[in-house]
Fold each of these.
Amino acid sequence: MPKEQIEEYIEAIYDIAGKNGLAKTTEVAKRLHNAPASVTEVFGSLAESGLVRYEPYKGAALTDAGEEVALKIKRKHRLLEVFLSDILGIDPEKVHEEACRMEHSISDEVGDAMCRMLNAPARCPCGKLISPCEKEIATCNECRTADGSTDSDKSAAPRKVVPLTDLRPCQKGTIALLRGDKKVIQRLSDLGLTPGTEVVLMRKTPMGGPIELCVRRTNLAVGHEIADNIFVKAVLEA
Amino acid sequence: MSGCMGCGAGRSCNKSQKLQSSNSQFGKSQSNDGSDRKSCQDCKKNAGMVVALAGNANVGKSAVFNQLTGVDQILGNWPGKTVERAEGILQYKGRKIRVIDLPGIYSFSTYSLEELVSRDFIALEKPDIVVNVVDASALERNLFFTLQLLELEAPLILALNQVDLMEKRGIHVDVEMLAKTLGVPVVPMVAIKGKGVLELTEEIVKLAGRRSAPSQTESGIKSRLKYGKEVEERIEKLARLLDGIKIDYPRRWVAIKLLEKDEEITKLVAGMDGSLVSAASDLAKELEEMHGESSNVIISAERYHVAEEIARNAQSIGVEGVSLTDRLDAIALHPVLGYLSILAVIGGLLVWTFVIGAKISELLVEVLRPIEQLEPVVSGPLGDILWNGAFAGLVAGLTLVIPYVLPFYIILAFIEDSGYLTRISVMLDQGMHSMGLHGKAIIPLILGYGCNVPACFACRIMETPKQKLLAAFLVTMVPCTARTVVILGLVAAFVNIWWAMALYVFDILLIILLGRIAFKAVPGDSVGLIMEMPKYHVPSAKVVLKQTWARTKSLLWVVFPAYIIGSAALQAVYAAGWLNPVNDLLSPITVAWLGLPSAVGILLIFGLVRKELTILMLAVIFQTTNFAAVLSPVQLIVLALVTMIYIPCLAVILCLAKEFGWKKTAAITVFEVVFAILLGGIASRLLMPFL
Ligand SMILES: Nc1nc2c(ncn2[C@@H]2O[C@H](COP(=O)(O)OP(=O)(O)O)[C@@H](O)[C@H]2O)c(=O)[nH]1
Ligand SMILES: [Mg+2]
């Protein structure tokens, strides 16, 4: 099966069902303008390659490997959207379509280079979060200064990081990556949010407001957009 | 509904867990540069001793400051900076010691002006002693700052404050161990109750004595904290390179700052020897490659690592239950109840202020009636005219400030000290983003309902110049008490209360709309909200009164003079008979466009000085207080609307000019005049069919 088709399917499942949910065969078929029968067939071969869990008559859910593919493609898609609208000045209405076609043909390297050039944007033009790259770095600053040459030695196994805003209330995580403005990063690390530090998400406030977190025995309120750029390794409760 | 365990809660550490190696890194004194600061020290000896209070925000520095200095306080600004400065005199056994309360900061980076002011004061003006006030229940975070004070080689005393709260949270700190590890005296305190104040004073005097005797130079104070090997080696290497140059900051500190790529210090050193900067950036790059993080983050992490270790060794933590704060926050930050609480608290505050305020105002006017002449003196010697005008200004100020502004600010300070204002900031943060601001801006905006002047000054809490300006611009659109008096007196009294409310709501919508536009139009950056969430506590009368005073005092030296001088000047202009020509001149706007009587021209000129004059003068001009008889409902509403937004009053203009310069002030003023007139005309046409 061609890479593009695999990615389209994974993306469709991710869009419909999210990280953990089940996408119905009919829904995927409708979205991709395909017959349910052929969707079932593709699900089968995706399941074989370990990207989805297929449940006959119900649908398909992403495995960890599948989720990784989805996040990667989403990252490229959203970076492309930012690039198209901010740099090339293309009408934001149109960038989605364009990005949909381009996302399959650019390599990770091109994606990361765009990320660097765009100063590691946090969100696409319509406001969706752009997930971070897989390099073992703690701030985007180094990537920007490292002229891309260290990419090959830095890229390692994908790390399971989520934005702080993805934690559930009372869930713990350890700081993995701070993205964003230099001064903000300085402030956050001054307040104790240094890499490896354990934080607890205390509370989310309504309407995408700030989150409250606890770090080093003090409680902080951090604006949602800043918190989106604090990536943590979630600690699973025992 | 109960909240969750915070970080570290329930994690009980006992002292046997401490790392073996940690102690050996501290307490070692390597005094090698204690002599270069003597020269400046000598010149200050005559001026008496100087003690600076430094520490994070909300740890109780001001409480300690008040305890130490009593009533002898001078409040003002740092020279040329919009950062507040408090200075006082501590008298002890015949000695006079100057005490300076530094702003609350978390670090010596250049995140904010406060940090810059504080570090320059400590490093360059070299106070004899720095008292580092720390919050005993958040030792780790506070020690992060303590370590930086040690790096700055400040002669330090640690005031371990809020011990009462610490004990309540089941934390115990081994004071002696802490003192030994840091190599500085540690004094446990409960500043609001005055506990530990005497001990602190004695330590200050003792340490000062020790410092002036050169034989025991700073044996304890010079303790060196050491970072991990990789970082430490590079700091030392760089510090050695710095040996040759002459710089007022401690060399090791400069080395650290260079590695952190601190802008100010890098600029300073670059001006002396560019090769040092490139050496530093090479060393920083080595670190970055080793750790995969940027060097300032590496050093912060190292510093926190040390702070963590000290805290772990010196404290033991029991289990903490669900606190009152968690329970209250379940309501205060609830998606529905939270917003209802804000509406109830702020709405209640405003309504209460104006209900009570009107009563007190009436009383006050009764008391002052024998000496006040409502009717302006417009003939006779110029002296009398000016005096009459000035006096009227003073009375007007009094009858506005005492009944309305003061109660409003007292209650607001009460809400603030309880910790609830922080929650309002959090709940409204997202809404403020669309205006390029964040939750903290809600504080100046609410203050604006009292008086715009302290509210403008309060915009200093915003981080960037752009955010300060945006916040101040929006503050000038908030109807202060004087304008509320006009709205209530014209619209609520003679149209109905709903139209008055509508004006208020319309004003809030305008603020949001203009905020969005200004955010796009004004250049500069905005940063988001990062704010500590203090625990709720019962407000202390002292803190509340002090905060109220800090805010109302700007009324004394800005609003009163503006009222008094402005009123006298207006009176003179009036007496000279220049006002009728003014009315005629303005009539194309007032009569033709706004649909108001031509006499309103004078009102608008008078309102420049004092907005509430609009209503007083209206009574004088038309010889009646039943405004419904002389103005139609539409005219009343239009007049109130225009008064609400047409210009910041004289006092606010002065205050804006002081904070932002004349150019920006002029832009805001001109915009508001044009905008208000435009809006007034449109309103008068739109409202016609309804009223
Ligand atoms: N319980 C308790 N509260 C304190 C103590 N010291 C200060 N506070 C409170 O902490 C808050 C902040 O104090 P403040 O002096 O304004 O802190 P600053 O920001 O460091 O100047 C105030 O509400 C004080 O009442 C203390 O020792 N114990
Ligand atoms: Mg203070």
Amino acid sequence: MCGTCGCGDGDVRIGGHAHQHGRAREIALEIDIMAKNDAYAAANRQRFAEGGILALNLVSSPGSGKTSLLVKTIEMLKGTLPVYVVEGDQQTSHDADRIRETGASAIQINTGKGCHLDAHMVGHAVADLNPARGAALFIENVGNLVCPAGFDLGEAHKVVVLSVTEGEDKPLKYPDMFAAADLALINKADLLPHLQVDMALIAANALKINPGIEIIQISALTGTGMAEWLDWIGSAHARVGSAKHVETAAE
Amino acid sequence: MHEMSLCENIREILEKQARADGFARVNKVWLEVGPLSCIEPEALRFGFDVVMRGSLAEGAALDIASSHATARCLACGHVATVQRRYEACPDCKAPGLQVTSGDELKIKKLEVV
Ligand SMILES: Nc1nc2c(ncn2[C@@H]2O[C@H](COP(=O)(O)OP(=O)(O)OP(=O)(O)O)[C@@H](O)[C@H]2O)c(=O)[nH]1
Ligand SMILES: [Mg+2]
Ligand SMILES: [Zn+2]
Ligand SMILES: [Zn+2]
Ligand SMILES: [Zn+2]
């Protein structure tokens, strides 16, 4: 074995020429480490655009009510547009099972130790689900207010769910997530009478991080705010459709 | 939190670069990390050592430079260097500077043999 670099005898032949135990050299680069994820995300985004599919990436800390909101949303969307769900959790298929009970197609991704979904996993899940043209695709990310912010999955929008019991300062403590989201659903609003929570302060903190974020106060339990959320989905879905229209008109 | 998987990306990039540039060992890796990139340098260092074990970059040194984040004031157009997302404009004091760069994560240089 070579004492300079530890390679085995004669096992390194790169580009047809023998490996040289020369001096160390420097190579200047400009390589984006996230490029691989971004390439998969771009492929997903193209698939969604071609299929007129609205893809939403739901992010939150564990237990804020993402699955409960999805179950309610699917019930209310019934008969209006086809709905598909990708469920991300470290373990179990509980959430996908809850979604399937509504009749919607769902795929569970178990990330094991992984703390976020990436665009490659989602690409495979979407290929398996094979969503119909014009569908809505909800991607429920792993419960984690940190890293899912950094991974583009090819979605049209990130939607952050924050429940009223988590504290008014969460947007300030987890600014990346609130900066990345276009909509914040402030869930479990039915609990407000029992708590001393300043809703206006939650909103102000979210707007401080992201002046463009939209905010809807909602309850998956009682249905408060669901109509507003469905309207938001409707507008977002219409934008996907019209973007497709413009493309085909230009062809 | 996902520094391990980022290190796996780095290892893949190094292996690909080794084939393209004809080197067998990496002695040192220079990274540039934006202050808004969600990356914790200490966690990255730890993950790097673990993930590079048994690879062409086993035991390689890691240099992590923090780049600047820039932001633009929507009120007065001032462009400022920032460390966080929600700073107020240093010029006109308006809140909510619009961040324009600072979440990058790049390999800038390698020392190879
Ligand atoms: N009071 C009240 N409870 C709710 C509401 N939405 C969800 N919950 C409860 O909150 C708990 C967690 O809800 P889930 O829907 O599983 O939350 P999740 O975000 O999908 O959780 P993970 O996928 O594990 O991160 C359950 O006990 C729900 O019944 C709501 O609007 N009001
Ligand atoms: Mg869930
Ligand atoms: Zn694959
Ligand atoms: Zn992660
Ligand atoms: Zn200003």
